[in-house]
Amino acid sequence: MECRQCGTCCVAPDISSLGKPAGVHCRHLGDDFRCRDYDGRPAVCRGYRPDELCRLIAAPTMDERVRRYRAIFDI
């Protein structure tokens, strides 16, 4: 699956190696929903691959995508 470049994976989950809690924008997430530190991103981000979850949470707004993500994982 191709990345939708929606930025949800940089907001919805926690990223412990960056000290980022779930539901908070990653400090590296740009206004264009792309990583501003792509070459320096942690291993968890490097290893992420878009999958069925991306399709399940698809929505027009970041708030709605995050809400759907959190509902799936009950967080």
Determine the oligomeric state from the structure. single chain
Average pLDDT rating? 95
Distance between the termini: 25 Å
Total count of helical runs of at least 4 residues: 3
Report the order of strands and helices.
HHH
Count of structural domains: 1
The biggest beta sheet is recorded as: none
Report the strand count: 0
How big a fraction of the residues is strand?
A: under 5%
Radius of gyration: 12 Å
Overall, the morphology is: globular
* Approximate helicity band: 25-40%
Structural class: mainly alpha
Write structural notes for this entry.
- The mean pLDDT is 95.
- 29% of the residues lie in helices and 0% in strands.
- It has one domain.
- The radius of gyration is 12 Å and the shape is globular.
- By secondary structure, it is mostly helical.
Give a short summary of the structure.
29% of the residues lie in helices and 0% in strands. It has 75 residues and is mainly α.
Short descriptors:
75 residues; mainly alpha; 3 helices
Please render the helix and strand layout as text:
Layout: H1 43-47, H2 52-57, H3 62-72
